[in-house]
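Hi Y.,

Following your request, here is the sequence exactly as I used it, all 89 residues.
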Amino acid sequence: SVVDFQKGERQLNMVYSLCNALSYNMNGIQNVIYFYDINCTYMKNLQRQVDNTKFLEIAPLLMIVVGIRMWHVHGHKKECYARYSPLFI
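Below is the corresponding structure, written out as C-alpha cells. Let me know if you'd prefer a different format.
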C-alpha cells in the first residue's frame, strides 16, 4: 500500500494504509509481516486508533508480525534491535 503524506508523516495515514492493505485479497491469509521504520512506537497505539473509527478494521484473528528494516533498526534502542530486526523474525 502507498500513502501520499500531505503535511509530513502522520500515523493516521499509516493506519489507513495498513487497514486498506489488510482488507484487500486476504482470503486464507492468517499471518502478515509488516515493516515500518517506527513499529516500536506505532504498534502500541494501532488497535486504539482502529477502534476509534468506524471506517477502519483489522481482522481479529490476523497475526501481524512486525519489524523495522535493517538499515533503520540500527538507529533505535538495543531493545528494538532484538525485538524488531528482520534477522530474528
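The mean pLDDT is 88.

Thanks again,
Q.
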